[in-house]
Amino acid sequence: MQHTWDSSESGDVAFHVLAPELTAPPLLDSLNSRLDAILQCMQSHNFTLGGFLVELFRAGSDRTKKKTQRHTQMVSSFLDGHSKQYDAISLVKELYNSRHSTTRNHESEEFLARNKLQQWAVEVVEDMVSREAEELTSKEGGLRLAGEMTWEFAAQFSLAPLARAAWKMSPTCICVLAATAISKEGRNKPPSWFAQVQGAPQLPSVTTTRATQSGQVTDWLHNAQIVIIVFMMLLNARNLRFTVLQKLMGVWLFANSAARGVYDVLGRIGLSVAYSTTLELLRGLSQTAQSSLRTEATRSVLSIVYNNINRKREVWDSEYGERAVIDSGTVATAIILEDCEPEKAFNIAALEQARAKRPREQLTVEVLLSCIDQGHLNRLLSVHVVSFLVMEFPHLSHFQPMLNNKLRTKLATHCMRKGRRTQAFPMAASEHDEGSTEGNRKVIDDLLLNQLGLKKDEFNRMLTIVTDDQSTIEKIRTLKRFLDSCPHGYHQYGWVLPLIQLWHMGWSDLERILDTHWGPKSCSKESEVCIEDVSTFSFVNELLGRKVKNMKRPDYYPAQALVFDTLCAEVLECWCEHYQTDDLGVYMVTRQPTLDELLQDAQRLVNTYLTTASAECALQGRLAETLFSAGSQWTSPFQGSSAPAAPRGDQVLANTILRMRDSMLHYKFQSAIADGDIGRAMNVMAVWVFTFCGSGRSKYTNELLEVACNFKYEYSNELKTAIMNNWLCNLTGDEGRWFPMDLMQEHNINLLKSMSGSHSSPFADPFFKEVISLNICNFLDIKESLRTAVGIGAKSGSHKQKKKAVALRHLQNTMREHVLHKFRASRTFGFMAQDDFAAGYDRFDYTSRIEDFVQRTLADMGNLHGVEEVDNEDGLEADFDAPRPSIWQDGELVFGTDVEDEDNNVLDEHSTE
Length: 913
Description:
Layout: E1 2-7, E2 13-18, H1 31-44, H2 49-61, H3 69-79, H4 88-97, H5 113-137, H6 151-155, H7 159-169, H8 171-181, H9 184-187, E3 209-211, E4 217-219, H10 220-238, H11 244-255, H12 260-268, H13 275-299, E5 302-313, E6 325-336, H14 342-345, H15 348-356, H16 365-370, H17 374-392, H18 400-408, E7 424-426, H19 437-451, E8 464-468, H20 470-482, H21 489-492, E9 496-500, H22 503-517, H23 537-543, H24 556-579, H25 584-591, H26 595-609, H27 612-620, H28 624-627, H29 651-675, H30 678-694, H31 698-714, H32 717-725, E10 728-729, E11 739-740, H33 741-756, H34 766-772, H35 776-789, H36 798-817, H37 836-846, H38 849-859, E12 887-889, E13 892-894
Parallel strand pairs: 5-8, 8-9
Antiparallel strand pairs: 1-2, 3-4, 5-6, 6-7, 10-11, 12-13
């Protein structure tokens, strides 16, 4: 019998069995006949099917045995993948799926082909996974940290590059894990993480969720993240030096004040390093931060912001007469000054020469009044009035980018550089109490000499800005006063330039607005009509069910919400009055005004409802018929002798106008701060010097008088530019996220106190110095970076906004029912809101208030506050939760309560070391 091998046109090789007497017999017709002939041929040569296949491929792979050309050609063509019809995979699949390879009547399955193939496949995969894991965990694998972990690495951490590297270098392991975590349907479309790897499946787009045929929703990205995290845990189990994820988790747990027991459990299952390892890591990060800060101090100009920190340390065992202790210390942050000319701006001699000429003697009430750019202020108010309208009605939303652009171009005054991210360096906490003069000296010496490593003789040439709230600035000025006569340059502290920060100032104005417009302090039992005065915040507070209290330092969020919600409702109601409509939305749809038309109408609203002159007209009744719509005749609810004297005009309308004016100025200040336009904010501060004076807040009055003297007469243009370019901070570099530095410092203080937990050591303890305080800002970053890395976004807050909209409509309807914005002669509820601006102007004009300040500060530059000015409303040192900064987004001031931010979550108490 002859055997011949023929290559077909398709490239496949056919094996023919020929009769001995025939050289080229015809092919058998049926497949079964052909297969049977081949099998018969194998039997005739003493081959079983298995023996034939094994010997065929074994001989083919054994280089020591000589093979025929036909044998080599056939095996090579089959195994090299060139066969278009049949390949090795198709052969193995047929073996595996054959009905003869499954259980029939056999007592055991271990001898069946399918089971043996499975065992062999598992062994192959096991070897592949082991080789891949060994390569990945090696130094050359690319997934081990080259050195110690840095905060830059933690802040930029992402699972995506880990996933790409894992897919590229360990595809077998990833496939095995993915098969466990993701359904077969899901594995057909992996996340785009793997799409950027050469050779990996390419995806047209990123799809995070998809509905399957069964109706279930599979989160592909979430499942892939779990695969990568489990993969990292397994690599750590293989090689304990592979701790990238575990170190990040340890620091993240510390940042969230996790208890020590959490470290024990998560460390045992491979999700985190131990607590002691975390502390060691943080100490190393602190040393790196300290070294970086010292380097920056030698090549950059820094400002220092610091404030006191207090906490009550409880005594757990009082049997020995111990009592709770109040720990006091100081927390500071160094800020790199940017966008300035340091040599010119901070020249001490230039400032001393300017002050020696005594130019502040020229300060008068007229000069203060000229500092207010009233025309610019009115144009800004018009934009904000239109913005309230646009925010209310979605069909006007296309105007919002135009309004925002107007604020940042034509109406911009002094904006921070776009994209700038403040370089802030937390400094080590100290036990020095800045509440005393001696404590302030120790604080400044510790920060500049010990921590920054600067030399004393370096301070005699250039000014150094030290900044925070009014209380801290006042103590720094006191230090300079007491040491002014010291013969040594450094110890005179004349090189210290105190700069007041702005968040506490804004809080003080918020307190002033509430106090001025709250209404009667009490109401007699015989007459409850005083609570019907819609022009008072006490009425709105009761109507909306708010819990705001008229007190020193009111709760920031509730107070701000009450003021701004009332303002929003009033502005919308004024639009209704202006257009004589009860349905503003329908009116806007029908009229379809242009932006220029809205701005022109807004200017009329500003002149009618947001100026001191219009409030005076409403109160006196002069020209009221030309300014306001006439309401129904007023009928006093008071009876007999309890009735207050009737004014000539409308006292309720006058109160309302003053409330709107003060509230809108505060809104303008907050929006300017968030948008990074310090010039717009300073224009409001020029108004506040009058309102603070009129309301009796003498300390902030003096601080703003000092600012006026500095910027009007004494500071060089370079120094003014340097201060204005560095008065605010932005920790993200995003537009609309600027805020005052004293608010940043309050957040750092709150976080430090929260993370200290039950740790019983003072603030000078290494735990605070070496572990927490130098890393405090980075703890916020890693919390946010890990949320971003796993795809956790902000909550929508839509329910809150819906409830707020309902409340504002209710308030607006109540204002309409009370005809609040129409003129009603003789209307009064007995309460008259003071015009703080007019009162401040009169106090400046008719008393020696300005002259006394000028003479006092000329005699002693640090003596801003006279002996008679002993009010302490600006210097309270009470514990409070620092609010989240507001942001300016798409032309809208988004309040901190509506900003979902992981940095502001309440932190659990931290365990002791």
